Amino acid sequence: MITVLQIISVVLLLQLLFAVWNAAQLPKLGAGISRGASEVHPVSAASAVRRLSVLIPARNEADNIADCLSSVLACSTSGREVEVRVLDDSSADGTGAIAAAILGDRACVMRGRELPEGWLGKSHACAQLAEAAEGDWLLFLDADVRLQPLALEAAFSAAEAQGGGMVTGFPRQVTGTWLERLVVPLMVFTIICHLPVPLVRGSRDPRFVAAHGGFILIHRDTYARCGGHESIRGELVDDMALARAVKRAGEPVTLADITGHASMRMYHNAREVWNGYRKNIYAGIGRSPVLLLAVLTMYLSLYMLPVAAVLYYCMTGQPSSAVMPAVAGLAGIAIKRTSDAAGRQPVWFCLLLPAGILCLSLIAVASWRGSRSRGGYEWKGRRYL
């Protein structure tokens, strides 16, 4: 056991060094994003953005849509043209009426068409919005996103600097309940720990991607070239699937730090956290049970075994033997703090890592079981298999 803990400690210390380096590679939205020196793609003739289309798919978002739209309308644009479109996707809670009352004649509220066979709801809504949009660049926002006043100016700058392709990022995650605090920040944790950020932009391999559907900025021509949401109409994890489609089309994808410009509260209670992650985890790893088992084994070994060993040695009167697992545990906490700092989370959230990993593992098993049952997954009143 001591040898295993020594190996884990070395692995975690190396991972800490990688995480610190990797977090520093995230470019800020609107700053540090540029066209690569050797990058050539068809959407580079004119980098000036004439119009930006802000596109918001909304299904039963009565609690969110007003604040989202108010934050969008309050953004500075320095006189540049912005159109705002909301698609009411068969809401049963008055989402469309709320949006129309806020927007008035300043924007368009569309009524979504009936969901065709083979499509998932959000992809269908986004496809309709893109079809109606008139902007050079399309900014897809989730209804629970809140923009800061300079967010759209930063989006304009990023679009003009990159010239084409996609720019995406993880909004700062606002949490309230304990399961939110334990699980939601682990999105950024997995990216900072395991995905070399420079390869998102620097590699043409579609396996090196990360995206968040709450904030996707994409050039109109890139969207058409990769097939848009129609090409991923049946994908549960639509944001990652769209990013891969962009890469396969030969267009650049940039993962940026947008936490200074956008925030969101994805879930509002434990049930929503459980169902949301249960829907996405297994699909997100390609529905591979072998890969799921490998990931769970690695996470539990790295982040929970050292803590369990410290408790065991202390309870059995062997405090000297607890030193090595304590070092490993502290390294894991330091890694979590590095990712939390990148996501602008409170300092003390790093102490929640072991409990967070345990909760995530339980949800992952439930996600696997859901894929094997006829019931599948339920989200926003729709059932997915």
TrEMBL record:
The keyword Transmembrane helix applies. It comes from the Bacteria. Residues 53-220 form the Glycosyltransferase 2-like domain. InterPro entries: Glyco_trans_2-like, Nucleotide-diphossugar_trans. The keyword Hydrolase does not apply. The chain crosses the membrane at residues 290-313, 347-368. Keywords: Membrane, Transmembrane, Transmembrane helix. Pfam families: Glycos_transf_2 (PF00535). PANTHER family: GLYCOSYLTRANSFERASE (PTHR43646), SLR1566 PROTEIN (PTHR43646:SF3). This is Glycosyltransferase.
